């Protein structure tokens, strides 16, 4: 009887695991390096980037970001290039993921949606309290651009109000929002709220929940279009 019950259960459990082969999510080890970016961390947690987060080459960034979220090569080269002068690997063509902590570079900015400002000592770790204030703007099953724009604007203002050394960067801040809206939309017409929560809170790509990677490469031009819509909605 147990065997009869157990086999169907195991089959269902196997079918429920939807991560692509070779890219099962794994919680990082204490020795693994991670960045202040939930998307980059999710890619490492799934093995699209080296799971240990060490000595990641531009080629690995290009391949991993394309395979895991389908951002195009031009986007990745531009995003990674700004960090090459701050690498701690000893080589300008590789980065450790925590090199992305460096404050003031595009991509690491005050008023993050899920991290505290560098002024307070930890701009690296996920901050549940901060993200909860952002997520409070997400009321439905999907996130609209106007709702995302308001969430970003309110978080930016809240950070500025308490940080006497606040370094404003509206473009980086809006870029952060455009990135999660487009990447978590995948092949859907709208961005599902549940997917965004999973990305930020678990640093996991929500394959198990039905997420499908965009079937067209995501470009800087497309992200720029989302930013323009955010500006118009603000």
Q: Helix share of residues? A: 40-55%
Distance between the termini: 61 Å
The biggest beta sheet, please? 2 strands, antiparallel
**What is the string of SSEs from the N terminus onward?**
HHEHHEHEHHEHH
Tally of helical segments: 9
Q: How many beta-strand segments?
A: 4
Please, what is the average pLDDT?
Answer: 91
Our estimate of the beta-strand percent is under 5%
Secondary-structure content class: mainly alpha
Search tags:
disordered N terminus, 9 helices, two-stranded antiparallel ribbon, 234 residues, two-stranded antiparallel sheet, mainly alpha
Concise structural overview:
46% of the residues lie in helices and 3% in strands. The chain has 234 residues and is mostly helical. Helix 3 crosses helix 4 and helix 7 crosses helix 9.
Tell me what the structure shows.
The chain is mainly alpha-helical and 234 residues long. 46% of the residues lie in helices and 3% in strands. It has 9 helices and 4 strands; from the N terminus they run ααβααβαβααβαα. The strands form 2 sheets. Strands 1-2 form a two-stranded antiparallel ribbon. A two-stranded antiparallel sheet has the order 3-4. α5 crosses α6.
